[in-house]
Amino acid sequence: MSWIVDSSLTFFQKFCVNVIKCGPIPNHIAFIMDGNRRYASKTKVEKAEGHVKGFDKLAETLQWCLELGIKEVTVYAFSIENFKRSDDEVATLMKLATEKFQKLLDEKDRLMAEGVCIRIIGNLSLLSPELRKLIAEATLMTKHNKKAFLNVAFAYTSRDEIVSTAETIVEGVKKGFLDVDNIDEDLFSDCLYTSASPEPDMIVRTSGELRFSDFLLWQIADSHICFAQVLWPEFCIWHLLACIFKYQRSYNDLQKCKTLKEENGNDRVQRFLDELQQKQLTQLKSFIA
Prior knowledge:
Structural class: alpha/beta
Helix content: 40-55%
Distance between the termini: 29 Å
Shape: globular
């Protein structure tokens, strides 16, 4: 299945979407897509087929989010912890990821027409050169798109992200870009993998598990949490609408208004952040060379 699919909603489903859109809609939703392996076991198919069904559900969910006016989506596609699974399953997941990122590049025209910006957050050094190259090409190809944003957490854990961010700041101090006094929550946030994104308004986890699995722990302090009692490949538009309805009911009490960060007046800090962004772009380009 393609990354971008045509709408499959019925007339009644579209009517319900429009009703929900009368209330506040999350600008940014993060999904922990859990349950692919259990779905495979439940339906008596190979694990690989369960993961394929999971990707198909992602494409469908992205289309629902576009129809709802949700501008940004972050998905937990592959945890660093997943490398501890069997060699066969890891190889299958890497093969699937390679195929899907190649498919994304093959659909360049449609992706660009939709104005979707693709960002991959995670420790790319853990991936194969072939997969890194495809990820870099997709990221650089879409980096100027502004209509919608898809962040794919791949080879990611929040603890790894936080350690990487601390190392980045230490390097900035050593090189003289930063003083220790410059280090605060805003600087730390600006150096995370997710620095280009606002914090999620809502996080959705499927499969009934009541945990975050080391996903966006820094970013979700004020996010509305919704645990869906369904395996990810079985997630449907009604589950998404139910989650958004719960978000709307708690909006006044739990959702804090987002405010724009004040521009950092420290020129040395800004130069450091500019260099960090350029370093990330140079790394991506090196994967293609």
